[in-house]
Amino acid sequence: MPTRLRQTVPSSGGFTVGGFSLLELLVTVVIVGILATTALAHPGRDRERLALEVGLRRLRTGLDRGRMAAQRQAEPCGLALSQRGWQAPASGALDPCRGAGMALAELGSSPLQLQSNLPEMLRFTANGLLLDGGLVVLSHPRVSHRLCMVIGLPLGITRTGIYQADPAVAFSSSHCRPRDAA
Q1: Could you state, in order of their start, the residue ranges of all structural domains in the chain?
Q2: Is the separation of the CB atoms in 31 and 39 below 8 Å?
């Protein structure tokens, strides 16, 4: 079936008259609308993913602050991890690591969910070594992946990654895989 091209009629100003059909304009508007909706839908997920990344970074920063506080105080100290973040331990067995408290999330940001097998109080030696270890898994209700931090002993060396299991079913540091291996 041969296609017919629309003929344009030259006008007096040198421009051609013809333009687009109503159907062409509607298709264009629909495509632009879909693209705009897609572009506007992602910032919410990006913000939640960023909140998860910031929470993981704050976990590591709290540990570093605890180490520095123990060294600065030149005496052992303790930190506790709760749903809100790092804080002074409830028990008075050790002095708290001064200046190490830190919230996991910014004020007003989406809630992060934290699961951990850390003891109630992480203990730091006077020279900043960490005496306790464990696993922390951070998640966000609207983000599909979970981030994790493993505190290994000796010395409290940390590694982070993506948690590749359901923490309610299997809670093990072997499920915390580096991001490049995930």
Answers
A1: 21-181
A2: no
